[in-house]
């Protein structure tokens, strides 16, 4: 009797466990499938967009009328951004898939640049047409390779989750068709990188020769450390740890850090010239005792320690008990936006919590201010007449193409919103319109 | 005898003199100069007073934004002050003299979380929720402001009364500053990621991780949104193993704000890894920039 009872109980529990296990298995599968579907969607979207992109680029090459080219390029720009998003959703981060992404971003930059330009005034140059053609070839290669991979995926029922697993296990031996396929795509595109847009077209050349003002003179580690200790006001007993940057850094620095009971700090000092690039201090900031305005005066006073010329405050913000200030140098009353400097001040006792001079050291040089600029009134007439202009100054900014241009800046209001409008002071173009942020309601 | 008369005159005049002097003294405001970007009680009072006079039409939220800035400049223009957009001593004195500030009313509305306005010469009951019924100030408002100027001393007394009955309750601003181009939600999401990825790291290591997220948004080889970068599959271990949903601490939030405001200790890195746990050989092949805490940052 007892035996039968035991057998009954055991078999019931066996059945119960298997039912439970089966359910778990089902749930796990459902989630796996869900994830798999997401990957699949991204992948197929990507191939579709690349197809579309290829066709669009081809038809644009055949176009002649300017009225058509601009909207067509705008469309290409839109598709590249969609395709780019899809690439980002695939689990490919750690396999070299950069080239394809670079193609997308180059295509996007190029189409945007040309689409916003007045082609009536400045039509496509021969160089640009060549770049465009080479991009077209790249797109056709990527398209055909992706189609191959897509075909394999569909025919052999390949799953992205397996790619994911192969990557997680770092299993190089595994014969993974998808990864191999993507590596082929990468190789093909690499072959085309010679035909890439040249740097002057990309407008990134100005970045390359940055940090000129730091000079060639190297400082020793000891000199840099002394500078850091002076800036942080550290006594001899505080231990400072030092690291040097590796070859990936676009500006060689010494990095210092220290940590005391209630205060820790970090700083980057450039190896050339020994300039402080970044300074950070971290401590508990108590309730605000001084105003944002007084904090600004502290920040200004602090900046007199540096060889900065006239500085103009472009923004000040209070975040809880700290104030953050953005300054730009002003040369002959023209504000130099690319050379921004940031300072952070604790509003409990007015001590400096941080400083960033990277943009300043990277971009700063004596600017030539052209004399043949249009008058404020002329520039004002280019601003949307609905705007009520409240304030105005002149500034050098980097426009969408990455070039430095001199502009008249107008601050104006429309209803309850404030806008900043940059009008090019040479060719009267509306370079940029920014809606300035409003405070956000707390939730 | 003559001297005594003089004394009497002096003695009787003295209180008058005192009463006369008092209105020009800044009563409600603290002695601080208020400037664009500030938050707090002084800003609430500034906005309320500017609204009383009809210069300011935005929300009284305690954040000195652009709306408040233009309102203040217009006020300075109308009252013949230097137009600098700073609420300094003179400006505050003029403002206090010209307007009435019902602190209790404002505190009550803010505490109840109601939409409200503080226009002069309009019935208070009409100025609270529902906000659609709010009367915008009309021309009548200007005259009432002038009236205020005339019987200033009476107002001042009334002001003093309300001030003294208020037992210095602290008002919290109902809004916060956010850096241009970012919402509070973006900041929270980033703080979550930073907390999950680098909560054991020194402060600069947390700023560094936040800076990498922002550098990726800027980079052509990564998605162009904060959420896109963070949720990119296999990009951050904290996202894959669910640690991103831990509640971020204050330090992570501050690190994110610093990074958004321009602090980047990594030198524009777009990758980082922990050398003790990294399994991928590919990541080691990236050109390295520097090590902060346990992480190596690279291009």
UniProtKB/TrEMBL annotation, chain A:
Occurrences of domain Sporulation protein YpeB PepSY1 and PepSY2 (ranges): 180-370
InterPro entries membership: YpeB_N, YpeB_PepSY1-2
Annotated organism of origin: Gracilibacillus marinus
Gene it is expressed from: ypeB
Sporulation protein YpeB N-terminal domain mapped to chain residues: 27-162
Protein name: Germination protein YpeB
Pfam families in the cross-refs: YPEB_N, YPEB_PepSY1-2
UniProtKB/TrEMBL annotation, chain B:
Compositionally skewed regions (Basic and acidic residues) per UniProt: 117-129
Keyword Signal carried by entry: yes
Domain of life of the native organism: Bacteria
Keywords tagged on the record: Cell wall biogenesis/degradation, Germination, Hydrolase, Signal, Sporulation
Domain Peptidoglycan binding-like: 39-95
Family, similarity comment: Belongs to the SleB family.
Protein name: Spore cortex-lytic enzyme
Species of provenance: Gracilibacillus marinus
Lineage: Bacteria, Bacillati, Bacillota, Bacilli, Bacillales
Gene name linked to the record: sleB
């Amino acid at each position: 009797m007892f035996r039968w009872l035991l057998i009954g109980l055991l078999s019931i529990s066996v059945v119960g466990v298997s039912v439970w296990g089966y359910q778990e298995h089902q749930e796990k599968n459902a989630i796996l499938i869900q994830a798999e579907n997401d990957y699949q969607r991204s992948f197929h979207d990507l191939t579709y967009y690349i197809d579309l992109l290829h066709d669009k680029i081809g038809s644009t090459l055949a176009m002649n009328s300017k009225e058509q080219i601009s909207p067509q390029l705008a469309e290409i720009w839109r598709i590249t951004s969609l395709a780019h998003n899809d690439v980002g959703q695939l689990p490919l981060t750690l396999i070299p898939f950069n080239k394809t992404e670079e193609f997308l971003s180059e295509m996007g930059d190029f189409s945007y640049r040309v689409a916003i330009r007045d082609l009536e005034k400045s039509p496509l140059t021969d160089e640009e047409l060549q770049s465009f053609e080479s991009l077209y070839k790249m797109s056709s290669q990527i398209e055909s390779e992706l189609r191959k991979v897509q075909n394999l995926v569909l025919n052999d029922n390949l799953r992205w989750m397996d790619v994911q697993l192969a990557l997680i296990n770092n299993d190089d031996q595994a014969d993974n068709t998808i990864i191999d396929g993507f590596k082929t795509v990468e190789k093909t595109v690499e072959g085309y990188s010679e035909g890439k847009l040249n740097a002057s077209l990309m407008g990134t050349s100005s970045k390359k020769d940055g940090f000129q003002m730091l000079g060639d003179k190297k400082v020793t580690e000891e000199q840099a450390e002394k500078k850091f200790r002076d800036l942080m006001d550290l006594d001899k007993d505080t231990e400072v740890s030092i690291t040097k940057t590796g070859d990936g850094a676009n500006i060689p620095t010494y990095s210092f850090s220290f940590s005391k009971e209630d205060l820790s700090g970090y700083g980057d000092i450039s190896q050339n010239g020994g300039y402080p690039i970044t300074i950070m201090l971290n401590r508990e900031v108590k309730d605000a005792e001084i105003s944002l305005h007084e904090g600004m005066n502290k920040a200004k006073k602090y900046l007199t320690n540096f060889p900065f010329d006239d500085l103009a405050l472009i923004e000040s913000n209070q975040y809880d008990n700290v104030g953050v200030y953005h300054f730009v140098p002003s040369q002959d009353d023209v504000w130099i936006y690319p050379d921004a400097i940031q300072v952070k001040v604790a509003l409990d006792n007015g001590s400096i919590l941080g400083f960033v001079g990277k943009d300043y050291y990277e971009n700063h040089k004596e600017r030539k201010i052209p004399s043949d600029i249009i008058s404020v009134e002329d520039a004002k007439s280019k601003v949307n007449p609905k705007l009520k202009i409240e304030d105005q100054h002149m500034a050098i900014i980097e426009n969408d193409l990455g070039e430095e241009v001199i502009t008249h800046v107008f601050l104006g209001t429309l209803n309850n919103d404030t806008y900043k409008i940059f009008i090019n002071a040479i060719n009267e173009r509306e370079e940029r319109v920014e809606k300035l942020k409003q405070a956000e309601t707390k939730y | 005898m003559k001297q005594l008369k003089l004394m009497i005159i002096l003695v009787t005049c003295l209180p008058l003199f005192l009463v006369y002097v008092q209105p020009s003294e800044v009563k409600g405001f603290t002695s601080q100069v208020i400037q664009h970007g500030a938050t707090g009680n002084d800003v609430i009072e500034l906005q309320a007073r500017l609204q009383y006079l009809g210069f300011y039409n935005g929300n009284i939220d305690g954040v000195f934004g652009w709306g408040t800035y233009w309102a203040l400049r217009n006020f300075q223009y109308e009252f013949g002050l230097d137009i600098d957009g700073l609420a300094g001593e003179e400006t505050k004195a003029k403002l206090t003299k010209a307007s009435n500030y019902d602190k209790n009313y404002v505190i009550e509305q803010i505490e109840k979380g109601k939409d409200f306005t503080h226009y002069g010469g309009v019935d208070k009951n009409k100025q609270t929720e529902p906000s659609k019924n709010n009367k915008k100030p009309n021309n009548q408002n200007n005259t009432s402001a002038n009236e205020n100027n005339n019987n200033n001393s009476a107002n001042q007394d009334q002001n003093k009364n309300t001030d003294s009955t208020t037992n210095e309750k602290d008002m919290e601003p109902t809004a916060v500053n956010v850096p241009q181009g970012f919402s509070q939600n973006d900041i929270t999401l980033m703080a979550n990621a930073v907390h999950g990825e680098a909560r054991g790291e020194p402060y600069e290591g947390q700023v560094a991780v936040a800076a990498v997220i922002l550098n990726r948004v800027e980079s052509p080889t990564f998605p162009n949104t904060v959420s896109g970068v963070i949720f990119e599959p296999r990009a951050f271990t904290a996202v894959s193993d669910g640690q991103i949903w831990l509640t971020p601490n204050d330090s992570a939030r501050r690190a994110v704000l610093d990074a958004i405001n321009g602090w980047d200790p990594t030198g524009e890195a777009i990758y980082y890894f922990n050398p003790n746990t990294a399994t991928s050989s590919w990541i080691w092949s990236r050109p390295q920039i520097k090590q902060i805490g346990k992480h190596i940052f690279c291009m």
